[in-house]
Amino acid sequence: MEIQFLGTGAGQPSKSRNVSSLALKLLDEINEVWLFDCGEGTQNRILETSIRPRKVSKIFITHLHGDHIFGLPGFLSSRAFQANEEQTDLEIYGPVGIKSFVLTSLRVSGSRLPYQIHFHEFDEGSLGKIMETDKFTVYAEALDHTIFCVGYRIMQKDLEGTLDADKLKAAGVPFGPLFGQVKNGQDVTLEDGTKIIAADYISAPRPGKVITILGDTRKTNASVRLAVNADVLVHESTYGKGDEKIARKHGHSTNMQAAEVAREAGAKRLLLNHISARFLSKDVSQLRKDAATIFEKVHVVKDLEEVEI
Ligand SMILES: [Zn+2]
């Protein structure tokens, strides 16, 4: 699985950074792509990637500020124009109001979609587990921004152990039904009386990945809870070291606060996004260096950058 950043800027687009959006690519796992936020121009960014809009099955919105949602009507409409491709339904998760925004935009512009959108709206009272499939569970918790805003914790379920077929063959088990039984965890006895203990041929289950993707926020305990032991934490860094006061005033975080969250949560990696256009490239490397004094495995992401998880 990979995260591809489609927009890593804060507030408004700049030449190098578009407004917020990222894609969690789960193609190997479930043949789907999940979008997190959809700022204006997200569909243009997607054109520069290998992502096929039809594969986008779910969109998670952190909050209703324009730089996080103005790309939705355009993306949703373009997704309909994929000739000869099967039209698949789409789920949108987000704060109360997202449904009205999307449906109003589509209605006023006379846009008709050949697929269904299923909305899952929530408010402060309906957070917690918001989605569960056989492979993934997604939790949301309120953060601390200037409007209602959430962070998401995406937990992949533990992966079953795999069968060591070569070892099983070497033990004299013929290819066929017995193989299947061992694969299903059943012990078997061969014709010559040899007992095959299934557990000896199946690797231990592997823990699923945990990905934490936060919306805009001041430093808050909710961020730490969402990021506990995460393989990757994506955290905003609208401001830099020393700007804690102004960050608080505007409902945002500094790189140092993001690093503190990663450290307190025991996250494995920290990716900083929502970078202000005020920062030139030398400032961006300083953002990383300063944050690394608190949490070493930190990286400031760029538009279109892809990170393997
Ligand atoms: Zn915002």
Automatic annotation (TrEMBL):
Identify the keywords attached in UniProt to this record, alphabetized.
Endonuclease, Hydrolase, Metal-binding, Nuclease, tRNA processing, Zinc
CDD domains, from UniProt? RNaseZ_ZiPD-like_MBL-fold (cd07717)
- The coiled-coil regions, if any, are none
Q: What is its EC number?
A: 3.1.26.11
So where does Zn(2+) 2 get bound? 67-68, 216, 274
The signal peptide stretch is: none
Report the InterPro entries cross-referenced here: RibonucZ/Hydroxyglut_hydro, RNase_Z/BN
Q: How is the cofactor bound?
A: Binds 2 Zn(2+) ions.
What GO molecular function terms would the record report?
Answer: 3'-tRNA processing endoribonuclease activity; identical protein binding; zinc ion binding
Q: Specify whether S-adenosyl-L-methionine is a keyword of the entry.
A: no
Reactions this protein catalyses: Endonucleolytic cleavage of RNA, removing extra 3' nucleotides from tRNA precursor, generating 3' termini of tRNAs. A 3'-hydroxy group is left at the tRNA terminus and a 5'-phosphoryl group is left at the trailer molecule
According to its UniProt record, this protein's enzyme class is: hydrolase
Keyword Amino-acid biosynthesis assigned: no
Q: Which Pfam families match?
A: Anti-Pycsar_Apyc1
Cite the active-site annotation.
67
Similarity field: Belongs to the RNase Z family.
What exactly does this protein do? Zinc phosphodiesterase, which displays some tRNA 3'-processing endonuclease activity. Probably involved in tRNA maturation, by removing a 3'-trailer from precursor tRNA.
Subunit structure of this chain's protein: Homodimer.
Q: What protein name does the entry list?
A: Ribonuclease Z
UniProt lists the gene as rnz
